Amino acid sequence: MSGAVAQGYATVTSNDGVSSACPSEGALLSPGNIDYFILNNFALVSLHDAALAAKSVVTSFHGHGPTYSYWSGCSKGGRQGMMFGNGIIPFRNLRYYYNTVKELDPDVHGFYRLFEVPGLQHCARGVGGYPAGTFDALVQWVENGIVSDALEAVSPTKRTTFFRKRM
To answer: How far does the signal peptide extend, from start to end residue (predicted)?
Structure first.
């Protein structure tokens, strides 16, 4: 978020309506009995509320709403963002999710790109490169029509850069 703020973007973050460090603490009515109201609030409603609040602040400050809205999320935040965007609940992996979206809309490449990074593992652990410049690539695509076919990746172990092509 700090990079986007430094470039003049307004940002918002949310705890998704969960006050504890572990969201599962309040997600069950009883052992094995999911509280669907809390789950829906955690997975979707809180994101919608945060987006509305952020857009309201931008409108109050600038006198008009934002021209573009971007989403950046990793792990749980990434899954929530994908569900927030199209209502499909991602539950297996990104490739499965991507293929599901592609089956529903053959023109998927007009709004969705999947860049795989072998060896990355969860949240930058592992020996694979960590994608760098994803936000800048997204802005170039949305605002200028320049679509990246690869993203720069930085090796967390060797501190070198290399490239990975999209699928």
So the answer is: none
